[in-house]
Amino acid sequence: MTGRVVAVVPAFDEEGAIGAVVEEIHAFDPSIDVVVVDDGSTDTTPDVARAAGAAVVRLPFNLGIGAAVQTGFRYALEQGYDVAVRLDGDGQHDASELRKLLEPLGRDEADVVTGSRFRDTNDTYRPPLGRRLGITWFARLVSLLSRQQVTDTTSGFQALNRKAIVLFARDYPSDYPEVEATVLLLKHRLRLLEVPVRMREREHGSSSITFLSSIYYAIKVTLALLVAMARRSTVPSQEDPR
Amino acid sequence: MTPVRISIAAAIGAGLLLLIILELIRGRRLKERYALLWLVTGIALLVLALWRGGLNTIAGWLGVGTYPPAILFAAAIMFVIAVLLHYSTVLSRLTDDNVLLAQEVALLRARLDAVERTTVSSLDVEDDVTELQPTEGRAG
């Protein structure tokens, strides 16, 4: 594998799942450091994570998923990691699938490798209708904008090399960030690769996205995408995050 | 021509506004960049109150014949929209700064925790605390 690897796990009130997530990553490869970014949890998430052997970065209040993930990337940059992988704190990403993400990075085939739920045709993952429509819409839109086939723009299961860590530490979108982040990557001419992975159903609670909010989300993110395309690029590729 | 009584009332109002603005600046409760904006606004209102033919004259320049005070409303609405737009940009910047600060605090705290853990495990805790106390004369 390529150098030091850190797993970035954003978590908000995930005391029921976070321990297993950390242990699973260590079970996959004990040399991977885990940093849990606690996004202002009101439960014992940080304690559980620390007890499971993760480093914990505690945000003083809830910043939302985008800023939490970015905090993890900034941690990776500061601590000099060569590779960062991102997994969700609710356990839907299977750490034993990490190999599929890390191998292409090791061979320098891409700067970012995303685990896609839709590359694998005999997968059983069936999101609810509203969500599925949204995912298809963004996959089409991003594929069109990037002239590259992208099937899963909402996957948060990713591995990044140093170049991508530097970019995301400086500039990362805020709400539902994955779609915009994909566009950001392609705008900065970073190489994106999708690999098929299996994902689990959520273990605790249900997804917070309902049908109506899917529509709102779709409109909002579409606008954000167009803005991201039109925006002046203010990110020089240097090492320090500001 | 504005009636005299309205002119006097408006002048008193504008004068009060100017006094409040000056007092806020004196007490440093208004940043210089906003102070200028509000001073100009206050002075403009005062001028319009005292220059009784002013509204008609300006309306004449702009070709507003039927109801000269309409230009006052138009100007006021445009001013309010401009100020709101400016506040939106300020809010956006403050939000970004706030996120950045929160991230920075979190990362620093994580580093401090890590440093404390290593020093505590390698040294006696109380020695360590005395070591970290700032000493007189060393800071110069």
Task: Characterize this entry briefly.
The complex is a heterodimer of chains A (242) and B (140). Chain A has 242 residues and is of the alpha/beta class.
Q: What characteristics describe this protein?
A:
heterodimer; A: 242 residues; alpha/beta; Spore Coat Polysaccharide Biosynthesis Protein SpsA, Chain A; 7-stranded mixed beta sheet; 14% strand; globular; B: mainly alpha; 80% helix; 0% strand
> Distance N terminus to C terminus of chain B?
69 Å
Largest β-sheet summary of chain B: none
Q: Spans of chain B with pLDDT under 50 lasting ≥5 residues?
A: 135-140
Order of SSEs of chain A: EHEHEHEHEHEHHEH
Kindly report how far apart the N and C termini of chain A lie: 29 Å
Helices of chain B, by number, come to 5
Using the CA coordinates, give the radius of gyration of chain B.
29 Å
- The domain count of chain A comes to 1
Q: What's the structural domain tally of chain B? A: 2
The CATH architecture category of chain A equals Alpha-Beta Complex
Strand content of chain A: 5-15%
The greatest interface here is: A-B, 18 and 10 residues
The main pleated sheet of chain A reads as: 7 strands, mixed
Quaternary state reads heterodimer
Number of helices of chain A: 8
Using the alpha-carbon principal axes, give the shape of chain B.
elongated
Order of helices and strands of chain B: HHHHH
- Low-pLDDT stretches of chain A are 236-242
Percentage of β-strand residues of chain B = under 5%
Tell me the number of strands of chain A. 7
